[in-house]
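Input chain follows. Return structure tokens only.
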Amino acid sequence: MTKGHPELSDFIGEQSTLQYSASLEKHSNHPIAEAITDAYDQEYLEVSDFQVLLGKGIKGTIQNKTVYVGSLNLVKELNLNAEAYDYETYLHQGKSVFFTIIDQE
């Protein structure tokens, strides 16, 4: 039985990417958002134009950049190539995977 409290166990990317993710997730009440903000202990960036993309993730503007945090479905909807990342390894381990997209990258 699990406690129902997800934790961020792995993060692939630069610290600045985690800062963007956590800053955006701070405005969300999703359990994964809480895991990301719990794992981040630095300064948050200002977010504007925050939007929830139902079933896909969230979106906002940070430092004049469009930032998304979301699922594989969101990555596909944005026509980005998720295959460049080794996300399937984490899925096979039973982990939830999220992607941070900054200005379509």
